[in-house]
Amino acid sequence: MTDGTDFAALGVPALLCGSLARMGAASPTPAQRAAIPAAARGGDIAVVAATGTGKTLAYLVPVAMRLLADPPPRMRGRPVDPRRRLRALVLCPTRELAQQVAKEAERLFRGTVLRATAVYGKSALAPQRERVEDGIDLLVGTPGRVRELCELDVLSLAFVQQCVLDEADRMLDMGFLPQAKEILSRAPESRQLLFFTATMPRPVETVVEEMLRAPQRIDLVGRERARVEGTPERRTDLGQHLFDLPDEAKTAVTVALVKDGKRRGVMVFCRTRRRAGWVAGALRRHAVRTVLIHGDRSQRQRQEALEAFAAGHADVVVATDVAARGLHVPAARTVVNYDVPLLPEEYVHRVGRAGHGGGTAEAFTFRCPSDRERWSQVEGAMRVKLEPSAPPAHREYLRMQDRVAPDAEAPRAPGRGTGRPARAQRTKEPRLADMIKRTPKRPRRGKSAGVGPGAAGRGTQRKQPIAKGQKPGRGVRRGA
């Protein structure tokens, strides 16, 4: 069904049901079916749901319901005060997620009087400030920019009725928790707090106990998932593979998966920004259309990269975990864990990027010897048990200095059985220090290279004795 009657059974008004139907939301997901009635009752809730289960609409729909039911007071002949109009706030850990949530809210609000906008850092402040001052009902933003606007007295949270923390576990990991607490302290004590996360580790559990007041817990992932009606089973459309590789072979295997496997819609996750740059550069050298996303990229660069990937103009996006949370990218079909994630929960978020647009998906994880303990933590926390399989043929994509495989085709140095390439095959660039040593020095000013005894040798010319009244290098003083 696409007429929104399933949502109407949850108490969603007809105006919003029409918007949901236009958005293609035929019926509520289990997360939405559990969260919407709970949030509509007005109490705090803590929802744990996996990536791709419709968490965004699970909190946007009850927020819109309350905004429509409780409009701001109007003064005759005067527009609504922008400070009183802002009644809902959503905090997100990344700029891309804030933009995505705001776009989803605008689609849901279409046909109503409600307005929403996104604010985020590393972007021009003036346009965002202007939109806020024009008057909005819902503000979606990253903690840093929201705090900045509050300090500039551009916006006030004194009339906020609902606050949402999306991807709350990620905000804790990224150090946003102190800023989030400070922002929430500006809202009234009576505000409702909606807490949405994909994982609930112990530090996040502590935050829930500290910030939420007697919350209703809805767990569609952990031990309590069986108590929620309609909870979906674990994904069976995601093929997961584990490769045991040395670190120097990871890039070559990545190229082989993309080029030889003719894969498109590949997301490669690296541990650091530098490693992400290396992988992106290697893929581009092998004529693979690749874009790059990490924290040092500007907002425009990151947005253009996502748009190119979503439109099919790029086959691979290489990113750090900044792109592992909350982003809905239907073009993503394959996830490559170039590095085992530092936290077990990140594995769920990474592989959850694949298959958002429907159909089957696959995930590949590269495990080097130093990652075995970290991967054991992933298996224990996420209840994942994978047997390592053989990686695809990738020797032709290895660098010369990395071709150390002891197979019969590998060239060996004469008289050695180590399997390393012969010394004559290696190319060594001259160091700067060696180049300086080989550069001949010019003779000093005032000395002739061909005059005096020992002129053939550098620095062997004898110095003439200094006469009385004469200084070294000068003539005889007057009156001497």
Structure write-up:
It contains 17 helices and 13 strands. With 480 residues, it is of the alpha/beta class. It folds into two domains: 5-71 and 79-227, P-loop containing nucleotide triphosphate hydrolases (Rossmann fold); 238-398, P-loop containing nucleotide triphosphate hydrolases (Rossmann fold), CATH 3.40.50. The strands form two sheets. It has a seven-stranded parallel β-sheet with strand order 3-4-2-5-6-1-7, sandwiched between helices. Strands 8-13-12-9-11-10 form a six-stranded parallel β-sheet, sandwiched between helices. Helix 14 (299-310) links the parallel strand 10 (290-293) and strand 11. Helix 15 packs across helix 16 (372-382). The radius of gyration is 32 Å and the shape is globular. The N and C termini lie far apart (116 Å). Residues 223-233, 405-433 and 447-457 have low confidence and may be disordered.
Q: How many DSSP E strands?
A: 13
Cα(first) to Cα(last) distance is: 116 Å
Superfamily at the CATH H level of the largest domain? P-loop containing nucleotide triphosphate hydrolases
Strand arrangement, major sheet: 3-4-2-5-6-1-7
Shape label: globular
Strand content: 5-15%
Structural class by secondary-structure content: alpha/beta
Number of domains: 2
* Averaged pLDDT: 79
Number of helices: 17
Q: Please name the CATH architecture of the largest domain.
A: 3-Layer(aba) Sandwich
Helix percent band: 25-40%
Largest pleated sheet: 7 strands, parallel
What sequence of helices (H) and strands (E) makes up the elements? Answer: HHHEHHEHEHEHEHHEHEEHEHEHEEHEHH
CATH topology descriptor of the largest domain: Rossmann fold
CATH class category name of the largest domain:
Alpha Beta
Low-confidence runs of at least 5 consecutive residues: 223-233, 405-433, 447-457
